[in-house]
Amino acid sequence: MNMINRPKRGVPEGLWIQCPQCKATIFRKEAEAKLNVCPECAYHFYVPARERIRQLLDADSFEEWFPDLKSCDPLEFVDRIPYSQRLEEEQAKTGMNDAAVVGKGFIRGRPVVLGITDFAFMAGSMGSVVGEKLTRAIEEATRMKLPLIIVSGSGGGARMQEGILSLMQMAKISCALGKYDQAGGLYIAVLTNPTMGGVAASFALQGDITLAEPGALIGFAGKRTIWNTVRLELPEGFQTSEFLLKHGFVDRIVPRPELRTIVAQLIDYCEQ
Q1: Start and end residues of each C4-type zinc finger (predicted)?
Q2: How far is the C-alpha of 209 from the C-alpha of 251, rounded, in Å?
Q3: Angle between helices 49-56 and 256-270 (to 10 degrees)
Q4: 20 to 30 A from 216, CA-CA: which of 62, 118, 246, 252?
Q5: Which helix (H) or strand (E) holds 245?
């Protein structure tokens, strides 16, 4: 009997992913249906800024502000490669001009100003563009008398390639938040994995209400940096959202599928 030689049919790439926490092999679409949360252990995977907008806001309600702002390499910084080249590579890789997206939208019919920092662009580090976008968004929220939500996903803190221009963004955003608070605005900070460095030391932990995703890494310097500088051994898990909740730095831990509902409820409660 003649046998027909057929190529072996493999499993298409990308159908399955491994959870970094429980190591289970899970069906990608099942995780995506749960807003990129592991169905086995509830580990929260990274999601890009555009996906967070779809998860949080009403469909097609987002109006992006200041999308064309770009860093201009004022220090002409060079490490392994020039900063200008690094920016071009990050922009090509992510489709973003920088690590922040801001604008206005609706959460269950409630108008809000939303800002998001995205880890995919240079670890979500805060340069002059990130600071400028967030400051302008806060000022618009003040002018429009709208609730403000900032979702932080920044592992890089202040961006060293912009030196003091990056560090000053911490103060600039904080000043804008101070004026927003004086005007009676409601600021809900949402901390995701990771929220570190100058972001954690400024706007991320200045919310009227601070929510965090489960298991998020939140802090200023990492464990290894602390050990190498002050030789201090810290408790296990001391920079997790659960540890910070226990010690009063976070008001509530909210699983991602519940975040949209909880934020809407908080807005209603605080505006009564």
Answers
A1: 19-41
A2: 6
A3: 60
A4: 62
A5: helix 241-246
- How many CB atoms neighbour CB 172 within 10 A? 17
pLDDT digits over 148-207, tens only? 999 999 987 889 999 999 999 999 999 999 999 999 999 999 999 999 999 999 999 999
CA-to-CA distance for 172 and 139, rounded, in angstroms? 11
pLDDT reading at 257 higher than 80: yes
| The pairing of beta strand 16-18 with beta strand 25-27 | antiparallel
For residues 215 and 55, what is the distance between their CA atoms, to the nearest angstrom? 19
Q: What pTM does this model have?
A: 0.91
Which helix (DSSP H) or strand (DSSP E) does residue 151 occupy? strand 148-152
Determine if residue 72 is labeled as part of a ligand binding site.
Answer: no
pLDDT in tens, 102-136: 999 999 999 999 999 999 999 999 999 999 999 99
Count of CB atoms within 10 A of residue 135's CB?
20
d(CA 5, CA 8): 9
Give the SS3 label for residue 65: strand
